Amino acid sequence: MAMASSVKVVLGSIAFAVFWVLAVFPAVPFLPIGRTAGSLLGAMLMVIFRVLTPDQAYAAIDLPILGLLFGTMVVSIYLERADMFKYLGKLLLWKTQGAKDLLCRICLISAISSALFTNDTSCVVLTEFVLKVAKQHNLPPHPFLLALASSANIGSAATPIGNPQNLVIAVQSKIPFGKFVIGILPAMLVGIFVNALILLCMFWRLLSVHKNEEDPAGEVVVEEDVSSHRFSPATLSHSASLNSQEWNSRLENADLKSSPNFSGNIDNAETLRNRLPSSENEINKVHSGALDSARNSIASKEETVDVSSHKREETILSERAASNNRLRDACPTESLEGKENLTTRWKRLLWKSGVYLVTIGMLIALLMGLNMSWCAITAALALVVLDFTDAGPSLQKVSYSLLVFFCGMFITVEGFNKTGIPSALWDFMEPHAHIDHATGIAVLALTILVLSNLASNVPTVLLLGARVAASAAAISAAEEKKAWLLLAWVSTVAGNLSLLGSAANLIVCEQARQSPYLAYTLSFWSHLKFGVPSTLLVTAIGLTLIR
């Protein structure tokens, strides 16, 4: 492509420079408007400077990529609601054998989840969990955060839906989903192994923590919370049984209080009668009237005691019957609530199963080679219908700012291509970047690696994708496919080079810095010490395995 006029070259370069600065450094002091606004500003400048016409700007927006990105985000949101990532977190701790085992599990689970649900989503969800586990076991969070971010980037390279640049490559190259996965999966698996090995070598001593140094306080708190909720129905039934026992004890006490009065009076009368000597019979006869009156008074007292005790018994029995009636009235309500809770749990279980089945169906459709954008959109709408509630709260979680960022980026990159600068640079590089020999692959990989860290990976793919593919297509169709896969692999793994290399790194860094569990700042230089050797080794090994 020939160079445009000098005015267009200068103005287009200025517009692209504005976009690049705000995309890489979204909080620059002189214009802290963020990536999304910076992308729209670059697109607007391309139109204002007449590098692109308005129609060309609209035509530059790739709707299939936006549709695929939107669909995968909606599916990820519903999977998160269905506790998919919660189960992944539990899998991390299932029969773990220490810090080193936990590090390897984080690498593996982060890679798999990123390949299926995008790397950004996995990092958003798993960062908090990783920090919580590190705090519970008194472990340093640094190696685990590096494992999470780097493995998410490597794992996301294996599928077209793993990250945004792969979405662009999948749509532009028209490589079927299955062939894409088969082409990169071996490199991804070996890359995860090498990345974990590098982490273990760098942090072996730091991860050598004895079990008696671990702090299980967090786990104890969790168990207490679970127990308090789990045993609340049992506590209710236990209190009811205590009430019935209390009533029985009251009845026994009342009987004991009434019976001694009656027996005591009779015993006293009999004792008095037996102790009277025979010589005093006359006195008894003389005073028989008085004694009879005394007996009558005792009998009247006994009758009074009997009446009062009967009244007390009747009162206690009536209260006991009322208590039993209240318990009987409460039992149907409790059983009804139990049935409602059981019904709710079954509905929740069926809904979650439906979400998983729809997601599996989407993956099967993608493997069958159906249109990826419409597969993702169809799965998203199926989940919305399956939820059978207002989809507003779920759709509000979609990152519309990312979709807008992509729109502005498409226009800005298209305008920069119109200047002719990318074509001129590629014409200079192409003779040295043929992928039919090792030197050319190394030069191409190094170029992609540098540009991905300077201009970000998605703009790099948009700038180089068609040119690299056209150069490889001149050799053979197989080489064209290999060129696209190499571009996907290198541009993705390049994100591990520095903290600013990918959005996943920045997500982990920000989430860790603002975490309520264990606030930790992942610095640029601490990441770079690990990122440089890991990126170079993983990239080089992967290049030999991609076919």
From TrEMBL:
CDD domains: YbiR_permease. Residues 24-494 form the Citrate transporter-like domain. InterPro entries: Cit_transptr-like_dom (IPR004680). Its main location: membrane. It is found in: Cell membrane. GO terms for cellular component: plasma membrane. It comes from Prunus avium. Keywords: Cell membrane, Membrane, Transmembrane, Transmembrane helix, Transport. It is a multi-pass membrane protein. One of its GO terms (biological process) is transmembrane transport. It comes from the Eukaryota. The chain crosses the membrane at residues 33-52, 59-79, 180-204, 355-386, 437-455, 485-508, 528-546. Signal peptide: none annotated. This is Silicon efflux transporter LSI2. The keyword Transport applies.
